[in-house]
Amino acid sequence: MRCRTRSAPCQDAVPGGLLTTKESHLMSTRHLLRTAAASLALATALLATGSAEAAGTPYAWEVSLSGDSPAGSLKSVSAVNGELAWAVGRQEQHGVIMRWDGQKWSEDTAPGLPEVWEWSSVSAASADDVWAYGTVVRDQVLVHYDGERWTSVPTAGPSDDSWPDVPIKAVPGRLFKGGKDLYTYADGTWQTFPLPPLVDIRDIDARSADDAYATGMQYPVDGGHPVVYHWDGTTWSLLAEPPVPAGTDTAKLTVDSRDSVYVAGWADGPNADPPQPSVVHWDGTGWTDVTGSLTELYLHAIISDNRGGLWVTGNDQAEPAYAGPVFWHYDGTEWTKRAGATAPDGDTQWPSYSFYDLAPDGSDNGFWAVGDYSTPMDEYGDRLVNGLIERAKRLPVPSTRH
What we know:
The chain is mainly beta and 402 residues long. The protein has helices at 21-26, 29-32, 36-46; strands at residues 2-3, 59-65, 73-81, 84-91, 94-100, 105-107, 118-126, 129-136, 139-145, 150-152, 168-171, 174-177, 182-186, 189-193, 199-208, 211-218, 225-231, 236-238, 249-257, 260-267, 276-282, 287-289, 297-304, 310-316, 326-330, 335-339, 353-360, 366-374, 383-394.
């Protein structure tokens, strides 16, 4: 994906459209105010190697896909185990599905995939039960992989013109789908749960076919309010409204355990200030704000660490404005900001990294992160935006015994 300099906006890969929200952030006024000295200084101090952190549980980050690959931007990732995973996105006007075989990422060549502009969501329940959702023009496309080939599956509901990145979540025996209504698919049949006008479901997570959560907004953001629904195997029920600041777009959630759910989003800062992220926790009876020191982040992804904590990421906007690969970890009490790994060909003078999804890597000690980053400007003032996949691995804690 090629972009012009910051003096003019980039054009999106989708014909006739401007950049997505993230890509417009790359060209924002805040980036105009950066200085090379400040960026390089913070690069040295914060994001030198992407190796293990000194404080807290040690993790090591590594770049698994970058540079000249089939993907220009990746929006969603899902793993079956440490040897099998899928990531989806686009390269200009062409939808791309990448597959991890335990050694490397490569474009999925299994037969049956239709042409789309973008694949925006993927969810794997098993090696032979994988789903992907995409769009072409104004039509939605849903496909299923059975271990040998992809097959198109008729979907329910109209395409979502407001938020075409419709979420899906697959678990054994059921598929959940969001959008302007809530949908479940089982045994070849769709069930529709109508939602009030202007409600849009932006994310879904599930523990089983009988226990799922969905979040979104009753728009517009200014004057609207967040919504969270729970699926009990029969119907969806609306939970109490999450206590987030006005103007917060709640577009992400993760299910930690039964009756333990985290919902996240961000709001524009006042007077062009940095974004204000929010994270709230549902314990089965009520909400608690756990945002704490989390700050200055366009929060695009959240995941449970399966140890009572969380990881969140997106597009960092901390001063001095250095949007490097950044992850925040919540240990149940405090937040810690940690550095991801930088792409070998990534811009170091005006770096811009964004992640859109997180998923367990299937090994019980790490996770995948997918998104994109920018390269340095060329002699014509253009720069490339390349797809990016990083993997974080939990390192053994050194023994203190002698």
